[in-house]
Design brief:
The protein is α/β, with parallel strands linked by helices. The protein contains 22 helices and 8 strands. Strand 6, helix 12 and strand 7 form a beta-alpha-beta unit. Helix 3 packs antiparallel against helix 5, helix 15 packs antiparallel against helix 16 and helix 20 packs across helix 21. The radius of gyration is 26 Å and the shape is flat. The two termini are 22 Å apart. The structure holds guanosine-5'-triphosphate and magnesium ion (MG).
Amino acid sequence: MAFENLTEKLSSVFKKLGIKGKLSENDVKSAMREIRIAFLEADVNYSVVKKFTEKISERAIGTDIMKSLNPAQMVVKIVNEELIALLGGSQQTDNEKITAKFSGSNFLKLSSDINIIMLCGLQGAGKTTQAAKLGLYLKNKSNTVLLVACDIYRPAAVEQLKILGNNIGVKVFYEENATPVEITRNAISFAKDNGCNIVILDTAGRLHIDEALMQELENIKNLANPSEILLTIDAMVGQDSVNIAQAFNNRLSITGVVLTKFDGDARGGVALSVLYTIGKPIKFVGTGEKMGDLEPFYPDRIASRILGMGDVLSLIETAQANINEKDAEKVAKKFMENKFDFEDFLNLFTQIKKLGPMKKILEKMPGASNLKNLNVDDKMLDKNEAIIFSMTPKERRNPEIISRDRISRIANGSGRKAQDVNDLIKRFNEMRKLMKQFRNGKGGIFEKMKMFSKFK
Ligand SMILES: Nc1nc2c(ncn2[C@@H]2O[C@H](COP(=O)(O)OP(=O)(O)OP(=O)(O)O)[C@@H](O)[C@H]2O)c(=O)[nH]1
Ligand SMILES: [Mg+2]
């Protein structure tokens, strides 16, 4: 996960401060030194780091901190606030105010008329994929979307967009023997004729800043007058991408950034450098190759993730978008009544799988950096599912009747060992016990998540 090391380093700085109780100016100074190194190692732009730590020192060495009851917590609070600002806190809020009225997207400037969204960026940055993800995101917010294939250069580029559009149920406009500007013009009139209120332009990539293609983007921009020009940046590229962003912004005056491949091993520094260096906010992050892997960029949530405080809000949103409320309620009711059986267990597996890979869920939990060595294996859900499938309906509903004989039959049926079946039953009983505690107010969702990860 991006920011993993940064989170770890910051936690250790805060821990050291916490032990100290009262802080001297020297304590704060040495903490700042460590924070500076942590940010530089996370590939944050040098001048950004300098400005950031100066600001924090200034606030931290002020009298407030020294007098406060818990100085370490005050430092965390200041770092959190400055991080949010660095990630675009106030800018995003202004933007929310302007656009929240329409379309359900806080992050795009959309009007009730036709909205053109243009995606641009270097080759392989993820334009085509994000075009489709954004299409799905806006479709789910009751918009009628048209995807437009403006990349006429790369073989199969049009085909790629057609396949993605087909997968998400969004129309794709393409044309042979036409220039990208002509395609754009025709697509806009097609959108008008067909009641589409969002037109997403997937433009051609370039290996590096290339005059001919830049000119083409400028021509498309002049014709289409997009309400959003989103620059797609690959988070894995690192600091170089800040220069690239500068070049695109100088030429096209972009409206925001979509940071892709945020799920990879990127150190995350780009996210912290973009706003400061080009003055444009990050609007979305791409967190995987699937069509649902696009998240609006909330500076406060990312700051919270960086500081190891988790991102429970995003997790809840994912859950809300993917889980059928009725099913969830049914399971919850069974929990409460302590009637939870293997049928419900199966149901729960299905729901958890909808949330995406286990690792991704856990990353958003508070204290995620402590869990990084946790061995989560999504295949285990499938294996356990197979075991439950080879139980009879009666056994699933009455786990108590599962005797030794039955265990070896179930094991044979599912191609697992008797020990695996035993383990599953043991975990199931533990979970029932935990649920009982949960019901009585002890433990919480975190405990529950830790439990699931033990299924291996
Ligand atoms: N892990 C991960 N992979 C991504 C993400 N976004 C895109 N990709 C992958 O990155 C590769 C390139 O994506 P494209 O969408 O084709 O990139 P592009 O910018 O359109 O590329 P060109 O059209 O060749 O310039 C594909 O294999 C995508 O599946 C992301 O958020 N996370
Ligand atoms: Mg493409």
